[in-house]
Amino acid sequence: MASSTSYSSPPCAACKFLRRKCLPGCIFAPYFPPEEPQKFANVHKIFGASNVSKLLNEILPHQREDAVNSLAYEAEARLKDPVYGCVGAISVLQRQVLHLQKELDATNADLMRYTGSEASYLNQMSAQFGRMGREGGSFNLNSGYPGTYSSRWNNDSNSPENGGDGIM
Ligand SMILES: [Zn+2]
């Protein structure tokens, strides 16, 4: 497995991709290991290497790993779904949350019907969950996107909108 051409550590994925020498202190090296070449390729394609290096230099070192992970996620999502990018995944998840919220409310209502004595407790719980749900999302994507939007993200979620799951 070892490379016979060099005894020093291999260049980071960024420098290898850009065909340049990976010098000590390379801004990309800690976040783009040579074992993950696709990570840099995606980020470079979507954001551009120089923009990424500028961004990394502008933020504190302890924030860089999170920033790179975020860029890598966004870039991969944008390549998969050129129209909506990660917003596609977010809106699918938001709709799932709304759907599950309705299911939870319906189940709580059923429970209340069956256990009248504990009604006040369930009321409290339901109010709490309702509040969490409403405050959870600071922006509502559902208003601006078509309800029937379907992308590759939907293939993973395995939750057909009209799948006849019987929940009213
Ligand atoms: Zn490098």
UniProtKB/TrEMBL annotation:
UniProt region (Disordered), positions on chain: 149-168
Highest taxon in the source lineage: Eukaryota
All copies of domain LOB, residue ranges: 10-111
One Pfam short name: LOB
Biased composition regions of type Polar residues, renumbered to the chain: 149-161
InterPro entries for this protein: LOB
Annotated family: Belongs to the LOB domain-containing protein family.
Protein name: LOB domain-containing protein
Organism: Olea europaea subsp. europaea
